[in-house]
Amino acid sequence: MAAVGASLLLLQCVVLAGAATADAQYSAQTFVDLQNAARADVGVAPLAWDDTLAAYAQRYAGERKGDCKLVHSDGPYGESIFWGNKGGNWTASDAVALWVQEKQYYNCSDGSCAAGKICSHYTQIVWANTTRVGCAAVACDGNLGTFILCEYDPRGNLLGVRPYAGCGQFNRSAQSSPQDFLNLQNAARAGVGVGMLSWDSTVAAYAEGYAEKRKGDCQKVSSGGPYGENLFQGGGGISWTVSDALFSWLGEKQNYICESNACKEGQPCGEYTQLVWANSTRVGCASVTCEVGGTFITCNYDPRGNLAGERPYLGCGGQAGGTPPPTSDKVNGTETNGNGNGSSANSSNPSRNGSSPAILPIVLPVVTILALISAISIYIWRKRSSPKKKLSYDEKRGKLAWDTRYKIICGIARGLAYLHDESRIKVIHRDLKPSNILLEMDMNPKISDFGLASVFEGDHTKHITRRVAGTYGYMAPEYAVLGHVSTKSDVFSFGMIILEIVTGRRNSVSSETMMAEHLLTYVWENWTRGTKAEIVDPSLHNNYSESEVLKCVHIGLLCVQESPSDRPGMANVILMLVGRSTSLPAPSRPAFLFRLNEDENHVHGDLSNLLDDSNKSNPSFNKLTITEFEPR
Fold this sequence. Notes:
Layout: H1 28-41, E1 48-49, H2 51-64, E2 78-84, H3 92-100, E3 106-107, E4 112-113, H4 120-125, E5 132-139, E6 146-153, H5 172-175, H6 178-190, E7 198-199, H7 201-214, E8 228-234, H8 242-250, E9 256-257, E10 262-263, H9 270-275, E11 282-289, E12 295-302, E13 328-334, E14 340-347, E15 364-365, E16 379-381, E17 388-390, H10 393-396, H11 402-422, E18 426-428, E19 437-439, E20 445-447, E21 454-456, E22 462-464, H12 477-482, E23 484-486, H13 487-503, H14 519-529, H15 546-559, H16 570-578, E24 596-597, E25 602-603, H17 608-611, E26 620-621, E27 624-625
């Protein structure tokens, strides 16, 4: 295992073995959520992830990585196959988007597919009797691209059987909710490492007004207004929804050439680039049923994107700052047997060979945040005045709404996911804490101070060090005591930051005074007693979404679990934060949980004792022994 400098090769292979995978681009939850969005559109029950199917997919992906040909396994399951050629950073959303786009060719009324077109990818995804799915992805040998497949049980596309009953409208109002528009678009933006959009009622009102004007003919004609704009028009006889519009826009990714920042000749890509335009921070959308039949969907973006001479986001292959889009020449689907599906996205670009070096900047961008962080120490990076200004606790406490705190949580998560999973070099920060989160004057946060960072090659993401350094209260136990460094060390630190943001309490272990209750103890005891409302910062005055706040506390506790293997990867953290699923695993006992003396209201056996010279003769904690300590 080697830690290397800032010039490394792209990770060569990503394979799914279960729902706890650490890569957002290929996570089990991503595959499930994207396909379930399409199933919900036609009123079909959601799929569940199955590890047996995933293992089958993983084995077959391993067999195919030598040539990555679209050849089916001919196994007992339904099967969809995707191949993206070299030069493109192909992800789960690319494969599912290509499969779901076939909906436009499927005639629900008679169960037929348009002449010369393929529909079986789509019909397998929405097959009502299919209840389980497992997927895998692998980088092809010889830099031949990416091979992605999903297995389905029971299999679909049975002769003479319809994929689902009925052809009517299904839950249109729910599928056109602001949260659905946000979730789907932010999932796509996360794939290229840009910040999340927020819903804007003014922009939404503009979209609604224009949608009403267009409902008579539903022609895809630009409104010519002050905002960026994406339009979708679905023909009559089909229940078109938000996810259809998104997959249509996302499908243009194959037409965008990142290196030249241009669309392929004769092919549109403007709706994709607007969707992922980094400087667009607000969105508003609307959907109407057309008088002539069909559906018209519009989304407006502010600030507008697609500005001449500008790129949608930072990075293109070897550049740090985002995940590069593909550079394909064409997309064509091929069906090789009646039981499954194969799709390919081919590209040709000799300058993209997967070996371009990546350069790690000293400060990495996270996401756009519109206000300061509350209740914890934070610095502001001033471009035109003093380099840094530290805000006092009293200046910040109580001034920020929950929405802003939530955006900051998601922003830090986005930055860590980039460092751990999306950068061409793997980076473990090792000293993540509030004072190492910088905010520009426009409130653009950045993870800073990489003085202790560990950088790794390929799939190596952990090592053991004899030089333990960091900040007490944010150091994971396996790192603080044994020197074990991994991405899960950063996850622990992130969990502590979440709990500070939600509670409005300082992390007492890292502060000079130890008279305050220990943060983890306070949160855990209230969580287990069922007094969860006591965890939330009282300065919020109940002006918050209870489910969202408690979800963040839940995620924070998952991140600070004692065993590193129990902590989620940052990719899954993001999915938990922005996903619609309400089912999260129960957190186990946190690391560094201290019992309180209720009469004296102070902490016994805390980490500060380990720093006291008088205690160095017996530096033991939680049945583990510290052999060497170099605090920072």
